[in-house]
Amino acid sequence: MWPSQKKTLSQPLIFWSSTENVSVGGGGERSSFAADQPGAGDGFIFGRVSAKHQLGQRIRHGGWRPPANAAQIRERETARFALRDETTLLVEATAVLQDLGFTIEESAPRLGVLAGAKDRDATEVGQVAGQIAMTVGLALLGVRYNPVWDKDQLIRVTLTTLPLRSEGAVQMRVSFERIVINTQGLARAERLIAPEFSSGFFEQVRKGLASRGIRA
Amino acid sequence: MRTPSFAALAALLALAACAPQQAADPFVPSTKPATELRAMQTRIVDADRQTTARGVVATLQDLGYRITRADADTGTISATRQTGLRLAATVEERGRNQSTVRANASVLGVGRETQVDDPNFYQSNFFVPLGNTMARTLMAAPPGGSGRAAPRPAAERLPGQRQAPVAPAASGEPPPARP
Fold first, then answer.
1. Residue A187 domain-assigned?
2. Among the partner residues B31, B120, B158, nearest to A179 by beta-carbon distance
3. A9 to chain B nearest CA, in Å?
4. Residue A25: what pLDDT?
5. Is residue A192 within 8 Å of residue A23, measured between CB atoms?
6. CA torsion angle for A50, B60, B78, B87 (degrees, to 10)?
7. Is there a contact between B114 and A154 if contact means CB atoms under 8 Å apart?
8. Lowest mean pLDDT among A103-107, A146-150, B69-73, B128-132
């Protein structure tokens, strides 16, 4: 499910990319706003006034609004567990996340929140080869081109629980996202909303509970 | 191959411990008056503190934020959306079955983090979804209320970093009011 891990000790110079990338399964659903692109009007000149202007543009273009498919994503990322003790479910979820290689960075059981992350190498041979081939090809035409490819990525998980007392169950939602930084220091975020991410996770939680004699 | 001595290793570890932590980007606060900011950032919810805090968490996750920090004691939740927007919300008890929610958002630019002071942003992109999630109508806070200032949203760790940037000590302070 997850790419191989890579440790990076250096601190890259990081610039944020405002492009909104939403990936669905193996394909991808991408949306972006013209006002967010570098060099688009004066929207990318940062400062007290221009940042405000950029935000105003983004609001007018419908940016930062709730995702149109929020209900579908929520349904896909949510499961119900037939047990009354929320803490038991959070303990099991923590164990599964750690088994998957995540480091728990935030845990607030009274609010039903867990957050974790794991580092992974984002380098893909095909992307690197393509960029080098393009650099060489353009150089032959007398055009200078700086190759760029994905370098590091951080996979983040946000997990929340909600007791449904009237139903004697606990609802759990899990969201995965990856933050990728390329060789030029640009970062982008992609939501991992393919069904197998959440369904595979829930299955492992149910197996873990079953191994402790809890049917949920 | 020679094995490094214990003293050399200890010296290296001591040097690593002295390495400066990565500083957070400079924070550019709004220049709007504190009362105006409070009005746009604050709403009253007819629900207890715990229910409201869980409602805030669920709303942020629905909106595509990643939860960065959550503290039940202080009622503070901090989250990041995509790579350019951070939001912190503080939930306070107000009477027997009411709570006050104060949100504080910031956008990230190159080398700086700018506080959001657009009332449309807070209303359309946080309070309306919060009301929908909680199935409640949110009310504006009365003028001159004594609500606590929302803290600066916490930064999250980035790929290739071993820990999250450290915000300057003054970052949790309320933004200065315009003279």
1. yes
2. B158
3. 7
4. 28
5. yes
6. 10
7. no
8. A146-150
The two tokens of residue A159 are 């997990």
Six-digit token pair at A64?
A: 């930062």
CATH number for the domain including A206?
3.30.310.80
Report chain B residues whose CB lies below 8 A from the CB of A115. 66-68, 70
**pLDDT the model gives residue A129:** 87
pTM above 0.90, yes or no: no
In a domain, A4, yes or no: no
Hey, what are A147's tokens?
Answer: 């190759």
Please answer whether residues B28 and B112 qualify as being in contact, where contact means their C-beta atoms are separated by less than 8 angstroms.
yes
* Helix spans in chain A (H): 48-60, 70-77, 86-99, 125-140, 195-211
| Complex ipTM value | 0.78
Nearest CA in chain B to A70: B62
Q: What is the pLDDT of residue B179?
A: 30
Of B62, B110, B118, Cβ closest to residue A74: B62
Q: Please name the member of B116, B125, B162 whose beta carbon is closest to the beta carbon of A65.
A: B125
CA distances from B124 to A20, A102, A116, B97, B101 (A): 19, 34, 29, 25, 15
Task: Let me know if residue A7 belongs to a domain.
Answer: no
Give domain status of residue A84, yes or no. Answer: yes
> Measured between CB atoms, which of A16, A66, A180 is closest to B84?
A16
Cβ contacts of A35 on chain B, cutoff 8 Å: none
Q: For an interface test with A, give the residue of B52, B83, B86, B133 to mutate (most A CBs within 10 A).
A: B83
Chain A residues whose beta carbon lies within 8 Å of the beta carbon of residue B37: none
**Under a CB-based contact definition with an 8 Å cutoff, are residues B148 and B89 in contact?**
no
Number of domains in chain A: 1
Boundaries of domain holding A206:
70-211
Instruction: Mark the ranges of chain A whose per-residue pLDDT is less than 50.
Output: 1-49
Q: Name all domains of chain B by residue range, CATH numbers in brackets.
A: 23-148 (3.30.310.80)
Q: Compute the count of residue pairs across chains A and B with CB atoms less than 8 Å apart.
A: 138
